[in-house]
Write a structure and sequence with these properties.
- This protein has 115 residues and is mostly helical.
- The longest helix is centred in the last third of the chain and has 73 residues.
- It is built from three helices and no strands.
- The radius of gyration is 45 Å and the shape is rod-shaped.
Length: 115
């Protein structure tokens, strides 16, 4: 019979601990919130994944916009480079023609002077 007497003490100790835990958790509201979080865990994961997809989509759109802007800038720079190359070629042609004219004039002047 001593075994029966000890068991109610343990049970009352366990009950007392559970009551203290419930009271400690805010009169049961904390315990309910704990179970609710456990039940909503899947929903939280889905909402987090949806948020991540939204952020990724936004980042991808920004990256595409940056890529489009950079492509436009690169096309503009290539066009400017081609225009500068054409201008440089024209200037080289004009310089070569001027040098040829100066050489002819030098030769004519030397002939006039008798050199």
């Amino acid at each position: 019979m001593t075994g029966w007497a000890a068991e109610p003490q343990i049970t009352s100790t366990v009950v007392t601990s559970l009551v203290a835990l419930v009271i400690g958790l805010g009169g049961g509201g904390g315990l309910v919130a704990l179970f609710k979080v456990s039940a909503d865990r899947g929903k939280i994961v889905v909402e987090a994944a949806q948020g991540a997809v939204i952020v990724q989509t936004s980042v991808i759109r920004d990256m595409q916009a940056n890529q489009d802007r950079m492509q436009h800038d690169m096309d503009s720079l290539r066009a400017e480079r081609d225009a500068l190359r054409a201008e440089f070629a024209a200037l080289q042609g004009a310089r070569d023609a001027e040098v040829a004219d100066l050489r002819s004039e030098v030769a004519r002047l030397r002939a006039d002077v008798g050199m």
